[in-house]
Amino acid sequence: MASRELASLVKELSTLIILARESFQPGERNEEWTKAALIVPLLEGLGWDRGTDVGYENSPDDIEGRLDLILKCKLPIGIESKALDVGSPRDHDHPHIKKGLKQSQERGASYFIWTNGDCWQFSSLALANAPVYEVIMSSAGGGAGQVDSIVNKLCIIEKGRFTANPEIFDEAIRTNWKMTALPDAWKVLLEKHKNDLLPLVRKGLPSELDIKNEEILEFLGTLKASDVGAEHPRSRTRQPETSRSFPDAWKQLLNSFEPDYDGARKRFCRDYYRKLGHYLISEKYEPWSKSTTWRRVGVPDEPNERKKLGLVIVLFREWRFIEETEGSMYKRVEESVPYLKTLLEEPASP
Q1: pTM beyond cutoff 0.85
Q2: Which helix (H) or strand (E) holds 69?
Q3: Judging by DSSP bridges, how do beta strands 77-81 and 111-115 pair with one another?
Q4: Rounded to an integer, what distance in angstroms lies between the CA atom of residue 249 and that of residue 269?
Q5: Do 159 and 47 contact (CB within 8 A), yes or no?
Q6: How far apart are the first and last CA of the chain?
Q7: Which of 24, 75, 170, 245 has fewest C-beta within 10 Å?
Q8: Domains contained in the chain, CATH given
Q9: How far apart are CA 84 and CA 31, in angstroms?
Q10: Long-range own/partner contacts, residues 162-166 (CB < 8 A, 24 or more apart)
Q11: Is 120 strand, coil or helix?
């Protein structure tokens, strides 16, 4: 899959993750749903065929002794899948990681992935002490730059690249490790070797100044290198801001055939998307509460319909046709109305 197509898939899955957390019942976000809706589709997007490349282990007599999935190739990759709501491990001492690495080794797999569909953590049997290397799919809502970052990280398991050069898996973890090594080393020095640091610092200080050890240590404590290897802070709710430039983005939405714009244009012109769009440009428009979206669109107030409307709202917010106000209300973005009218002049998709 080309990077542009993978980027589009990452955005779609990010939207689905956010929708599932906001609109689905906990029981609907179980492990089997996560595997079918999030994990396997991403693996397919990375070039792995679900029928021939993805192995599904089934050991009913030894549930703890199985991996959920295995990517089959010369150097297999073991995968442990969890439900979307399961919290991610923070280090390699976590039971999920220790068990997964052991099971991967027993099956001749050199690499291991833990995932709940949103968080993807990559481990290598050759780099057991490396810090956690992870990708957070839902952070794609941060804009195009964040999507590109996610795509670049995921490419270590893109089938063509990985099978041609499996070392890219370890190389990515090593690179991430280097980025966190200096901050970690500085922290260790301050905690365990401050008595060695003090005389070195004093050599660079003017002898005329009376600076106490406590003042030196306080200053050194402020020199905290940025944790550049860490994934950007997680957010359980999608931020309405995007990296698109408006009104230029609205203009391109009307006529550009780039996948991002063409795909969104087709969605806006069908089904519930079109109904909400017509409401926004109608004389009956007025700001509305989140709980009454179904009424504005003219659909039944049923759980399945509300789930569909969740995706509709996500798309309208992403493209800044609507925005959220205080008090859990939605309102249209006035500057967008002329573009939305033009967009809806297109015939509805069959």
Answers
A1: no
A2: strand 69-71
A3: parallel
A4: 17
A5: yes
A6: 27
A7: 245
A8: 3-174 (3.90.1570), 180-222 (no CATH), 248-344 (1.10.10)
A9: 7
A10: 162/73, 162/77, 163/73, 163/74, 166/74, 166/75, 166/110, 166/111
A11: strand
> What six digits make up the tokens of 208?
């005329």
The predicted pLDDT at position 146 comes to 85
Q: What is the pLDDT of residues 241-279, one digit of tens each?
A: 445 788 999 999 998 888 788 888 998 998 899 999 999
CA 109, CA 47: separation in Å to the nearest integer? Answer: 19
Residue with tokens 């923070």: 90
Q: Which one-letter DSSP state was computed for residue 212?
A: -
Which sign does the torsion angle of CA 331, 334, 339, 341 carry? positive
What does the pLDDT read at residue 235?
A: 38
In this structure, are residues 98 and 105 in contact, taking their beta carbons and an 8 Å threshold?
no
Residue 79 has which token pair?
A: 């995968």
Looking at this protein, which amino acid is placed at residue 32? E
Greatest CA separation found in the chain? 83
Contact predicate 67/83, CB 8 Å: no
pLDDT single digits (tens) 149-193: 899 999 999 999 999 999 999 999 988 888 777 777 877 888 888
